[in-house]
Request: fold
Amino acid sequence: MRISDMIPYERNAWDNRQGVSAIAESIREFGFRGKIKIRSRENPVIVSGHHRVLALKQLGWDELPDEHIEFCDDLTDEEIDAFRLADNETGQTGKWNRALKREEVRRLAKKVDMSKFGFDFKSKVKPYGAERLRGDHEWNLTICNRDDCSGQLELPTLKPVDVDPPDMISFNFCMSAKDYTPGVHFCIDDYQFERVWKQPAKYLDLLRKFNCVVCPDFSIYIDMPYPMKLWNLYRSLALGHWWQQEGLNVVPNVTWSDESSFEYCFDGIPQGGTIFISTVGVTRDKGSRSLTLLGMKEVKKRIKPKRVLLLGSDLGFDFGRTKIHQYKPRQFKDQ
Reply:
């Protein structure tokens, strides 16, 4: 069932909006468990699960499998309203054994970050510098900092790599992959790989299995403000730099928006190695096609790559002596 079709009950008396982010983290970590209760297929008003629906929207989900939907069309309207209240009220009647709760959370702490779900027994008084260290973790300064950057804009730098994978798959199919000879690219919606930035260590061993990994394709759309584009470029290079430090074969993802982005989008990219370019989605739009060809010209002049891993059409561009390995964009059913 499409999540956008689920209608919130306008008189819902239970408000737990402050807990939606924790619910989203739980779903991200453990998957969706349980059911969303809906009035009926013809009248898809939410009976129970309002905040889980908000969490799914926050995670970018479009649909929820029917196995997680329960229709309540065997109840009258009055019974539905009564059940909605009772469901929330009965969930509050219990209480924690606080000592046991604390022990369980501490036991799990080395494997699971329970603070993401609202469990935090840390002292209110933190030692000097503790908040700064927490910030370093959130900003990933522990994997890349100013010492790893160079140039006027202080962007992370990458080393040249010489790889030529037989195929490329998108990151969202890495978990189910049985063949590790392809390279991994991130030419998918940003929300599908934002988790790699938030928890980089979690996916390191998975990515290490593959032939190579392309720097994440965080979007730098033309209509984005300059600081946002620069931040996304930084994140891509920072993860790539760290992956190289960890021994992965990392291919720079060379991407740009309009001509003004040429001033910074090639920073940190080494000359003479293998790079990755995607032209997916630009062939049908004349303006996008022109900007892509213009960017390819700059790539050829400034980076002088030895090999280009090209996802999509070459748009008729002549890369000269540069080796081109062209990959056809794969449909979901093909991956």
